[in-house]
Specification:
With 378 residues, the chain is an alpha/beta fold. Helix content is 37%, strand content 16%. The protein has helices spanning 38-51, 55-64, 73-92, 158-164, 168-172, 177-190, 207-220, 234-242, 249-255, 267-283, 319-322, 348-355, 359-364, 369-372; strands spanning 29-30, 95-96, 104-108, 111-112, 125-134, 139-147, 199-203, 230-233, 292-298, 306-312, 334-339. Strands 3, 4, 5, 6, 7, 8, 9, 10 and 11 form a 9-stranded mixed β-sheet that branches. A two-stranded parallel sheet has the order 1-2.
Length: 378
């Protein structure tokens, strides 16, 4: 029988070992979210006891098990609950299939041209960093960084240089976006991504892909790569997993008891720190699954190439992603029409308004590049 010793400082869940199965039989497989096996009811009890602990008691318990004691109370609770879940499920011989369904995470954080007090400014990507995280090893295994030469506004503003630290000399010596994108995809191939190895793009918020990448590809007159049309928004995953408010990179790091390393608004440094957050979430038992995507539809009847794109905050899930329901968020999709064959600068804010992004989400990211682009009004 299972027994729970109540108390703030000393409790444990004991799970009766499953009887030996007959030769050739396999233990039952349960997916996260299905609690038909008794072990899940017992875990529910232990979670209730964890919820009663204060921060000092949580840290004491985590230290006892050799776990990280840094972070806010909600972070510590999630960490301890996951420890008990993992250990007791192993004891009960129940196999749970929920896990991050990719070999690698490709963390991307663009830097782009910008002007102060110019909301309709047409941004161009000027830094393309990628940080590769091995999901099983839970560590950074490779980095890619290239500067990009802007063509629409080739001269950087003093505001842009001051914000990003990217000088005119760096972009003048760089290749245009199309060539840099080719280098990125060649780098992906070198690491077997999209071939024998699976991967998912991970970003801090939705803007890198459905704003910067989307408009850059439109400006460059190229198709948006398939891998960039669906991604993991770590802000959303972080909020859902730790049950806390959304925030930017530095806020997420602070909540985890970590500090920013490098220079803010350096694309490669931002990407490294986002990767550190993702690794900590993996260590804490988070199943990072795709939670946003963009679909582009072209109207063949219009010579101006009118496109409709749909931002899914809850994309249709793959089998691996369906095992991660606890990290998903049910938000309705919004459809946005726009003429992207010509001058779309005057329509950007109108389209962003129709995306109906919660203002609190934008305010949480005051350290994000977009806040300096004066896009809060969208």
């Amino acid at each position: 029988m299972a027994a729970v010793e109540n108390g703030d400082n000393n409790f444990e869940l004991f799970v009766e070992k499953a009887p030996e199965t007959r030769s050739g039989t396999k233990p039952k497989v349960y997916k996260d979210g299905q609690y038909s096996d008794p072990v899940f009811k017992k875990l529910s009890k232990i979670n209730g006891e964890v919820n009663k602990l204060n921060k000092r008691e949580l840290q004491s318990k985590l230290k006892e098990f050799g776990l990280d004691t840094r972070g806010l109370k909600e972070v510590l609770k999630k960490r301890l609950k996951n420890f008990y879940k993992k250990r007791n499920i192993q004891k009960s011989r129940v196999r749970v299939t929920g896990k991050t369904g990719y070999d690698y995470l490709a963390v991307i954080d663009f830097e782009a041209t910008c002007e102060e007090n110019y909301p309709s400014y047409r941004h161009e990507i000027i830094e393309f960093p990628v940080v590769l995280v091995d999901v099983d090893k839970m560590e950074i295994v490779a980095k890619f960084q290239e500067y990009v030469r802007p063509l629409l506004n080739p001269k950087l503003s003093s505001f842009c240089t001051s914000l990003t630290g990217i000088t005119q000399e760096k972009v003048d010596q760089a290749d245009p976006f199309v060539d840099v994108l080719a280098k990125v995809e060649a780098w992906f191939s070198q690491h077997g991504l999209g071939q024998e190895k699976t991967f998912a793009v991970l970003t801090d918020g939705p803007w890198d892909m459905f704003r910067f990448m989307f408009y850059q590809c439109q400006e460059s007159r190229i198709e948006m790569p398939a891998w960039s049309k669906v991604w993991i928004n770590i802000r959303k995953a972080y909020c859902n997993f730790y049950n806390c408010g959304r925030g930017g990179i530095e806020i997420m790091l602070h909540n985890l008891g970590m500090k920013f390393e490098g220079s803010p608004h350096s694309g490669i440094d931002d990407a490294v720190n986002i990767a550190r957050i993702a690794i900590k979430m993996l260590c804490d038992g988070c199943c990072l699954s795709l939670n946003e995507q963009i679909q582009i539809k072209v109207d063949p009847r219009d010579s101006k190439r009118e496109a409709r794109y749909v931002v899914y905050h809850e994309p249709r899930k793959s089998r691996a992603a369906r095992d991660c329901d606890e990290n998903s968020e049910g938000e309705a999709a919004e459809e946005i029409d726009g003429d992207y064959g010509g001058d779309y600068s005057g329509e950007i804010n109108h389209e962003m308004e129709r995306l109906h992004i919660d203002m609190s989400e934008v305010d949480d990211g005051v350290d994000d590049l977009l806040s300096y682009y004066k896009l809060q009004k969208s």
